[in-house]
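WARN no homologs supplied; continuing
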Amino acid sequence: MRTGLVMEGGAMRGMFTCGILDVFMENGITFDGAVGVSAGATFGCNIKSRQPGRAVRYNKKYCTDKRYHSVSSLIRTGDIYNVEFCYDELPYKLDKWDIDTFSKSPMEFYCVATDMGTGKAEYHRCIDGKKEDITWIQASASMPVVSRPVEIAGKKYLDGGMSDSIPLKFLEGRGYDRILVIETQPADYVKKPQKYMPLIKLMYGKYPQMVRCMQERHLMYNEQKGYVREKENSGEIFVLRPAEPLHIGAVEKDPAELQRVYDLGRAAATARLEEIKAFLR
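OK structure emitted
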């Protein structure tokens, strides 16, 4: 039996995921493999480096810091989340990502990014937490319109959530058979068509496959939500998700709001802790 963890993205809805992961780490719950999308990758990597509390700590500390995210950064650099600060200064200097523990952990950890040329998902296995890994994690979390494309090996990438929002089938395809899924939307959430398609077509006209991917994203997402519910109802997977919409901004500047959503994640995991342990045995 191989245990796996799937972590949906959702910008600061990812604080819900952080709360769950911290409860897991505090209670010795581990997985053989994990895959994270967008915020599910940027925050989820801490479960492999065994750093409970880190993600909520630095988000609360820097959420009002213009070096972390700001409109001025978007205007000046093309990234609302400042790349130099978020993917260099913060993880390697200010609140260090424990890449030594990360690299020694036997857990397989994957992140998902969208190839702008094909509009398809690519999955990168993060090995040591160094430059290549952090660049892939950056790509996974680079939201369209408010982020520059990330270039890796001659290809350009953006947010993995566009092409594979809840990569359950990816882990199933790699032989994981006890899978826990963390969603950041309620069970009955239905994604609507992208309302900014005219702007997206204008900005990304050179990448017709990615434009098509974004145009059809709601169809992909809603199909995945249905697949997760089907597997959950049959007892094949275990799912943790918020009971109600989290109502938190993608660029949240209120530490109390970050704490609120984090606490909801902790409560969701704590309430079902014994069920989770039994499922993963």
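The beta strands are 3-7, 33-37, 108-115, 121-126, 150-152, 155-159, 178-182, 237-240.
OK
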